[in-house]
Amino acid sequence: MKFDRNSVIGFIILGLLFLGMFWFNSKDQNRFLAEKKIADNIKRVQDSTRRSQDSIARYKNPPQTTPTPILATAADSAGFLQALNGTESTEEVNTDVLRIVFTNKGGQPKSIELKKFKAPGNTNVKLGATDFDKISYNIAAATNRNAGIDSLYFGTAEKAVNTDSTTTITYKLKSAEGREIVHKFVVKPNNYMLDFTITIDGVQQVLGTNTLNLTWQANAVQQQKDIEYERGQSKIGYYYEGGYDNHMAPGGGSKDFKGAVNWVSIKQQFFNYTLVAKNGFSGGNIIWTSPTDTNGIVTQATANMQVALQNNATASIPLGLYYGPNDYQILKQYGNDMEDMVDLGSGIFAFVKYINRWIVIPAFNFFDKFTNNYGIVILLLTLFIRLLISPLTYSSYLSGAKMKVLRPEIEQLKAKHGADQQAMSVDQMKLFREAGVNPLGGCIPALFQIPIFFALYSFFNSAVGLRGQEFLWAHDLSQYDSVFHIPFSIPLYGDHVSLFTITAVITSFLISLYSMSMTPDQGNPVLKYMPYFFPFILLFVFNKLPSGLTWYYTVSNLITLGLQFVIQTYIIDHDKILAKMEVSRKKPKTKSKWAEKMEQMQEQQKQVQQKKGGLPNSSKGR
Q1: Which label site among 80, 290, 449, 457 has the fewest CB atoms less than 10 Å from its CB?
Q2: What's the pTM value of the predicted model, to 2 decimals?
């Protein structure tokens, strides 16, 4: 097979960047970093867990005899003690997208089902439904007695359906002296955000301070069939001091906030739980752990947030609770940058998110209007993207055609110089310059396409619309397809066979075969066989990726094979190229400073080798 060094370099660079991207997105690499960092994480998680457990213990076992500063201003011993005992009652609210069960214990949501999304067991996705999930804050239940609001029983829910089709659920908790705590929820039709307002009458008596110390606990439960891959895609996000930031969930950790925080969130691969402060939190912290066992918990988080209150007798704290999909368009409508949670490009590849936002998502949504078959939508998206980059594709093929025309002369130079690689390189560069050929013309267009590859990798890992969508043998385009289950796990590969991965690998290999047959041979065995090995590296990289992505690569590769054949056979006229190159040779050439320096360096290296006796006699005698 014939090949071109620069094309090979392009393959290698592409391969390295691919592997770099997957490394940055790998849960294993994020979990097993340097030993010091792991030790620091473990210590931080242990400290954070201890603080969380101490906080929960204080809620469950409040001090009985020792007064605390919070209770110093409590005016009456009766207070809210009667609310410590009661009977739990629930109230259900249904919308087009949600089924919410509220409980009077703590006056808060008990579970939320997403009607349009299915969990692995084919039931509705359920969020905020474990015993760990809760919202709480300490109040003075009576003199020398405090309690967490989640342990108190509110009155029966007051349910009202409003003229704007919203539903209001109101829970009230009254003390013996007439002070009142009200939790009010507004559920909107076709909306995943719940408005949540806490109203406290007698702030100093109830809280003992002008700060509400709110604790929000959330369990992110497994929603995909591969929990390890889902953990690797999960993050803890927040909007802090005017900007969005996040941390990888695997491994655990904590984050302290010393300034204004708009919201905090647990983001799974396709869903998120978010606590929003409409007037902002004044500070706090969030602690998270990522269990490594098989209990079905992806990430567990506890946020301890402060809300600064006005020095008034009554305080109203407007909040929001989001339980829903990581859908860019849905999150964007809230106007608080929650759409940044949708991982359309992050880390060193953050720039590709704009390709997804401005090109890929609009195109995908456009094609979605014409068919309900998402496999066809991906096919149309592939055709659109290939049309978009067609100028780069043609430029690359044209460069390959020019190199093919020069192949006989390159072979003559090889025969002339033999093992003298320095002399070969000098004369080859002269040949390229005389013929008006850019030796990097084949790989530069390919490098410009790399951001598109990275953008699509992020897009298909975040496209919640693909969940549960079947195509051909794939039952869910958001997850890997499996046509055969292996009774054991192969390192780096897994325990299943993905047919779309195999089709992507085979078509990539065919592209390598065709491309290398069109370019001259440089004789380096390492470079010679690298393009053939690279497609099979993808076998291990792609096997756990979403089948929508591997289907895209399969279609894109088939298009590439077809374009290569048509362009090289019917569009590019090799005789015309040769004629233009001959005309270019006759024109006077001016060397660039870069070319002059390269030739000087090569000549110096040649002289050094001659002095050391490293060149053949035929070279020395010239």
Answers
A1: 449
A2: 0.76
